[in-house]
Amino acid sequence: xxxxxxxxxxxxxxxxxxxxxxxxxxxxxxxxxxxxxxxxxxxxxxxxxxxxxxxxxxxxxxxxxxxxxxx
Length: 71
What we know:
Layout: H1 2-49, H2 59-70
């Protein structure tokens, strides 16, 4: 009976170890996804205020800064 319990505990330990590795991998994928989302958000914000062809500031950025200066 003790041997059966040891085998059961050993199997449970292996399962938990695998789960821990899986959690670590999922966490790493989550971090990578968050970083990618942040990069995409920064790119969208840049594109909202700059001309895609010339990379010059656009009217929206000008108006926003003008409002702040006059504000």
